[in-house]
Each structure stands twice: as C-alpha cells, then as structure tokens.
C-alpha cells in the first residue's frame, strides 16, 4: 500500500524540521558542557592555589 504524495511530503518536512532542530541543539549542548568543564578546571586550580 503506497502512501499519497502529500503524506510523503509531510513526513519528509517533519524529518527535515527535526533534523534542523537536532543539529541546532548540538552546538548549545557542546558550549554548555565545555563551559562546565572549564569552570571545574578553574575551580581545581583555584583550590590548589589556596593550599
């Protein structure tokens, strides 16, 4: 049973939209985790300096 063209087009557009959202979220996730790692490293350096 083959789906109609509008149904296939709608599925494709949903796929494209979700792909764009996913690719857009990755840089945000990367930046947040990178800043968290940097803050932990700087905190460890500060703790070492205080000793």
The number of strands is: 0
Cα(first) to Cα(last) distance is 73 Å
Output the number of helix runs.
1
The low-confidence parts are: none
Order of helices and strands: H
Structural class, judged by helices and strands?
A: mainly alpha
Shape: rod-shaped
Strand coverage percent: under 5%
Radius of gyration: 22 Å
Provide the residue-averaged pLDDT. Answer: 93
The residue fraction in helices comes out at over 70%
Main sheet, how many strands, which sense, barrel?
Answer: none
Task: Describe what this molecule looks like in 3D.
This protein is mainly α. Helix content is 90%, strand content 0%. The longest helix is centred in the middle third of the chain and has 46 residues, at 5-50.
What secondary-structure arrangement, pairings included, does this model have?
Elements: H1 5-50
Give a summary of the structure in a few sentences:
With 51 residues, this protein is mainly α. Helices cover 90% and strands 0% of the residues. It is built from one helix and no strands.
Provide the descriptors you would attach to this structure in a database record.
1 helix; 51 residues; mainly alpha
């Amino acid at each position: 049973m083959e789906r109609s063209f509008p149904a296939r087009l709608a599925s494709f557009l949903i796929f494209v939209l979700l792909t764009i959202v996913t690719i857009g979220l990755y840089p945000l996730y990367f930046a947040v985790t990178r800043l968290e790692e940097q803050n932990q490293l700087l905190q460890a350096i500060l703790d070492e300096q205080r000793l």
